[in-house]
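Changelog note: in this version the structure field was regenerated for every chain. One regenerated record is shown below for reference.
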Amino acid sequence: MTPLNAQTATATATPAAKVTVIRLDAPVPCDGRLLAVPAGHYDWIRLLVAADDPAEVDEEVWLHYREGADPEWLRTTGPADGALRTARVPVPRRSELVGLRLPNRTGLTVHALDAVGPDRAAGLPNGA
């Protein structure tokens, strides 16, 4: 899988997956804000996060689709030294995703973000 990289707009991770980087100008605090996602069909959202608190990250996020929003969980465990951790948020709906509402947790920041989905050109099911 291609590493999270804010310098790459789109990269092919494997013949069956496509990674779309969501550019961030700076680390984004988790203060309940809504981040726009390039409209599309995805399997998961991958985040690189840091937390001031060494505890496990287990926070509710909201996935915003064209026709509504659903809750999901951002979960990760990792080193207790404030190092960056990777988290994956599943995108179970086969609808067009347009945004991600971050949790409201002081001391938690998002450093990189990308969306991973099937390569529609590969002729996979549910490809539109």
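Spot check on this record: Strands lie at 10-14, 17-21, 28-31, 34-40, 44-51, 57-65, 68-76, 85-90, 97-101, 104-118. The longest strand covers residues 104-118.
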